[in-house]
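Hey,
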Amino acid sequence: MISRNSTTRVILEVVKGPRSGRTFVFDRHDTFIVGRSQFVHCPINDPALSRDHFLIEINPPQCELRDLDSTNGTFVNSTRIDRARLASGDLIAAGQSVFRVLVEPGQAAKKGPAPSSSVAIPARDPILCAGCRSPAPLNLTINNVVGANPHEPIEWWCSACRTEAAALPQPVPHYSTIRELGRGAMGVVYQARHNSSGRMVALKLITPEVATTRAAIERFQREMSVISQLRHPNIVEWYEQGMSRGQFWFAMEYVSGSNLEALAKMDPGRYPTDQACRLACQILKGLEHAHNGGFVHRDIKPENILIGQTNEGSVAKISDFGLAKSFRSVGLSGLTFSGEMRGTIPFMPPEQMTDFKTVRPQADLYATAATLYYLLTSQYIYDEPEGGGDLIKMLLEEHPVPILERRNDVPPGLAAVVGRCLARDPDERFPDATSMRRALKPFC
């Protein structure tokens, strides 16, 4: 049985090569990049390595390696791979370097906020699927939080029940679902009606990717309760939340219009620049309010900007505030880069990949500029990688295509504002959302 204050750790040891003897320790969700570039986590002066050679995503005890289209390849236990799930004892070879993977229990946790941890807990009593009551595998990995009672009740759903839950709307107390509005990496959204008040809501359902304890569930719900207190005309309002049949549910303000992604595709590359800048300024107003409260969205992208209609015209509303960040930080997301990220990476600032834990408000400014760019051009800031290349490598190495090369009628001053906001160095962007909004105002 796991001790009360321990956490599983993933350790990477450099056992051969220029950085032999170095050790890297991970006790929570993180990324780790190796290559020749000075901006990666483990820069190695080795001509056999590519600038960004391979990436490991870690969510202890899980970790997955992906080769970043390197020239000379990445090898796990002497086999060249594109992607591979890693286990304790595996050897990773790239260029002159060899890394050993170790997964082991950590030391007693230090005082302070409890991080999340995925912990393998040998159960005394059988763990049963909450849906069909089938027994769980004996080596089931349980997501817990450090300091929680190791006997915490465990919520686990088998793959068959998870598939069924994802395909069909689940009953949520006090609500009746009407129709599906959208489906993506962060769950499914339905239009629903509150049974007693008749209020129309957007009902979002998310299923944890891993088995989890009640303590981890409660921590996620506490984090979302804090974020849900954000109130602003340009932020989708959160009404209430809960859990039903293994799924988290969130009742949110229903916005009857489409999202910015659909808006961009209505007349590709011809959306009026003044209207686009007005919507971007509304996004920035919402971000001003959130940033002043200490919140960073981390997932601004066209599909997360809902477009409502008022007597004054279109209004932009930011949805899913803090949802992805909290879901990942508590360890409920599994390995996110293993899933579908094509709709997220083109709007993600480079520092969010290289400094996974610490992201400043300037990250949201970059993502807002990339979203404005998409609305104006109906294209990403990067060209699609040739031959199905890796999007992560593109994010780490490529410079954005200047917006005037996509659309030559964009005012040069506006192109300069967008270009500044897309700077790779966060300190070269505007210092805050207020400053960026002022810079866009002349073009509204």
